[in-house]
Design brief:
heterodimer; A: about 180 residues; Arc Repressor Mutant, subunit A; 2 domains; B: about 180 residues; three-stranded antiparallel β-sheet; about 40% helix
């Protein structure tokens, strides 16, 4: 994700009297949040709006003396809820093939490697379509660096349920993808 | 199938307690099957992570149109040329007042009324220099310049097969009166 598409959240946070702690969190968590939201099915612009709103909400939360534990989980939960209110086609968008959109990968890989990677992604996308919504969300939050307890807080489910969902999801992908 | 297999992913994610994690580690050292499964789960996790990055990059990737650099160069060149030519201010031509012609229709004589005293507006005196400037009319014709694209841009900037000529018409006052691009 390029930095040229930075949202206005950082200056807005400063205008709102945002603390350096919030600014640091913003720098640290903006990318994982954007990635999570885009993978949930939001467009880039929608995702940036949601991230901006989430950080402004965090600023208000802290200003009114809200709990300061597990801010990462708090941000993901707020972003997740806003995303669920906005998006309606999560399943379709996240698991749709990327075949026509991989030209941005302007790296030094050989054409053969790129073809292999595309094929691997195609198989993975097909396998992701077989996951339940809960399994998919658990995997996405896990890929965002959240612990099982935090994932449980975001999705409103027990930590043990998260563990089971992650295990089932990984095993399904391993079985279907043959990576 | 050994019991530890159910804990491999949790161990990979560091979600086990220290005692349980130690037990799993010991088991992995001695169990080839679990090591193989662990490697597969790691690879799936990494592939999923890369896939998420690719999805995010694909959804936020906005390629710059290929014609954009050419258009930007043409606009910059036009602005530079516009600014390069000196411009001189000229006074606008005097506004002609319509002349009154005698009407052929007889106008009935108006009753003589004592005319109201007219307010006299004195015109500001005009200096001879201003008078000369007001009377001056441009007689020169506009200058037309045609510049081929390869003369405007460094070699290699213009895409192959594309060429155009910028035609500029310079008015006598130095301003660009017309800019036209033709192929």
């Amino acid at each position: 994700m390029s930095d040229d598409s930075l949202p206005l959240a950082l200056p807005l946070l400063r205008l709102a009297g945002g603390s350096s702690e919030v600014t640091t969190l913003y720098r640290e968590l903006r990318k994982p949040l954007l990635r999570y939201l885009v993978c949930l099915g939001l467009t880039s612009d929608e995702a940036q709006d949601v991230v901006q709103d989430a950080f402004l909400g965090l600023q208000r939360h802290l200003a009114f003396g809200g709990a300061q534990e597990n801010i990462r989980g708090w941000l993901f939960r707020v972003a997740h809820n806003q995303a669920r209110n906005r998006q309606t086609s999560y399943h379709r968008r996240f698991s749709e093939p990327l075949d026509g959109e991989m030209d941005f990968l302007a790296d030094d890989r050989t054409p053969e490697q790129r073809v292999l990677e595309k094929e691997k992604f195609r198989r993975l996308a097909a396998a992701i379509r077989l996951l339940t919504e809960s399994e998919r969300e658990c995997l996405l939050l896990r890929a965002g660096g959240l612990r099982y307890r935090e994932i449980g807080e975001v999705l409103g489910i027990a930590t043990s349920t998260v563990g089971d969902a992650v295990e089932r999801a990984i095993k399904k992908l391993a079985e279907k993808c043959n990576v | 199938m050994c019991d530890v297999q159910a804990k491999l992913i949790a161990w990979l994610d560091r979600e086990l307690g220290s005692e349980e994690a130690t037990g799993v580690e010991r088991h992995i050292e001695g169990c080839k099957e679990c090591r193989g499964r662990l490697a597969t789960y790691k690879q799936v996790s990494e592939t999923f992570d890369v896939y998420c990055d690719a999805v995010a990059a694909a959804k936020t990737y906005r390629p710059v149109p290929r014609w954009m650099p050419v258009l930007a160069s043409a606009v910059v060149a036009a602005v530079v040329m516009f600014l390069a030519f000196p411009r001189t201010r000229i006074e606008p031509p005097p506004i002609l007042t319509p002349t009154i012609t005698a009407a052929s229709v007889a106008v009935p004589a108006r009753p003589e009324v004592e005319p109201a005293p007219r307010k006299i507006h004195r015109r500001r005196s005009v200096s001879p220099a201003e008078e000369r400037a007001a009377k001056w009319h441009p007689t020169e014709t506009a200058v037309q310049i045609a510049i081929p694209a390869e003369a405007m841009f460094p070699p290699g900037v213009m895409p192959k097969g594309m060429n155009f000529i910028a035609e500029l018409s310079i008015a006598p006052d130095g301003s660009v009166s017309q800019v036209r691009l033709r192929q």
